[in-house]
From TrEMBL:
<dbReference type="GO" id="GO:0005385">
    <property type="term" value="F:zinc ion transmembrane transporter activity"/>
</dbReference>
<keyword id="KW-0813">Transport</keyword>
<dbReference type="InterPro" id="IPR027469">
    <property type="entry name" value="Cation_efflux_TMD_sf"/>
</dbReference>
<protein>
    <submittedName>
        <fullName>Cation transporter</fullName>
    </submittedName>
</protein>
<dbReference type="GO" id="GO:0005886">
    <property type="term" value="C:plasma membrane"/>
</dbReference>
<dbReference type="InterPro" id="IPR050681">
    <property type="entry name" value="CDF/SLC30A"/>
</dbReference>
<dbReference type="InterPro" id="IPR058533">
    <property type="entry name" value="Cation_efflux_TM"/>
</dbReference>
<keyword id="KW-0864">Zinc transport</keyword>
<feature type="transmembrane region" description="Helical">
    <location>
        <begin position="175"/>
        <end position="193"/>
    </location>
</feature>
<keyword id="KW-1133">Transmembrane helix</keyword>
<feature type="transmembrane region" description="Helical">
    <location>
        <begin position="84"/>
        <end position="100"/>
    </location>
</feature>
<feature type="domain" description="Cation efflux protein transmembrane">
    <location>
        <begin position="22"/>
        <end position="198"/>
    </location>
</feature>
<keyword id="KW-0406">Ion transport</keyword>
<feature type="transmembrane region" description="Helical">
    <location>
        <begin position="21"/>
        <end position="39"/>
    </location>
</feature>
<dbReference type="Pfam" id="PF01545">
    <property type="entry name" value="Cation_efflux"/>
</dbReference>
<feature type="transmembrane region" description="Helical">
    <location>
        <begin position="112"/>
        <end position="132"/>
    </location>
</feature>
<keyword id="KW-0862">Zinc</keyword>
Length: 209
């Protein structure tokens, strides 16, 4: 830590560690999306399906963040708003699916949910650790940190849902966790949108002076 403090600070676009962390996050999320979408379909779990969609959203989010590193403020804010809209849309889609499944009565496969949830948690903790130092950056960097944080929380919830499904023999824990993950997505979307609006306002105020 002391050695790091001796270095001249670099901007995010100049920091090779950030680019490596984002490429790592992109690869992990893309892989986990493919795995979880198959596992969710096999297990009949909406929580896993929601988590898989979240991994897809994060993969696109990391790709867009890489694309605008070093770009002007207008481009970065535009991408931040796109990501916020995407996270919000995914959250609404999961809520709609949860409501539709209320009367279906299909019980997911708890062992598959638990095993895949644990693997996803390990993957997301690795990504969160890689991105931790950038959690207080601009709206784009804040959004990637929020994605990884929410994913780790969601994975714990999926594992809890697996225990609930196993213990009750019903789909209610799975649906409840899916709704919780949708709420996290909507909350993150609001936070990123608000941060982008704040940065735009600060830029406009500085330009006026």
């Amino acid at each position: 830590m002391g050695a790091h403090c001796c270095h001249t600070p670099t901007t995010p676009a100049e920091d090779p560690r950030l680019r490596r962390a984002l490429w790592f996050a992109l690869a992990v999320n893309g892989t986990m999306f493919g795995l979880e979408i198959l596992a969710g379909l096999q297990a009949g779990s909406l929580a896993l399906w929601a988590d898989a969609i979240d991994f897809l959203g994060d993969t696109l989010s990391y790709a867009m963040t890489l694309a605008v590193l070093g770009a002007g403020l207008a481009a970065r804010l535009r991408v931040a708003r796109i990501k916020a809209a995407m996270m919000g849309s995914l959250g609404l889609a999961v809520l709609a699916q949860a409501v539709w499944r209320l009367g279906q009565g299909e019980v997911p496969q708890a062992p598959v949910m638990g095993a895949v949830g644990l693997l996803a948690l390990i993957a997301n903790l690795a990504v969160a650790w890689a991105l931790y130092r950038y959690r207080t950056g601009d709206a784009n960097l804040q959004s990637v940190w929020l994605c990884s944080r929410n994913d780790a929380i969601g994975n714990l919830a999926v594992m809890a849902a697996a225990l609930g499904v196993f213990g009750t023999g019903t789909a209610w824990p799975d649906l409840g966790v899916a709704a919780l993950m949708a709420g996290l997505g909507l909350s993150a979307a609001f936070s990123v949108w608000r941060q982008a609006a704040s940065e735009q306002g600060e830029a406009g105020h500085s330009h006026a002076h």
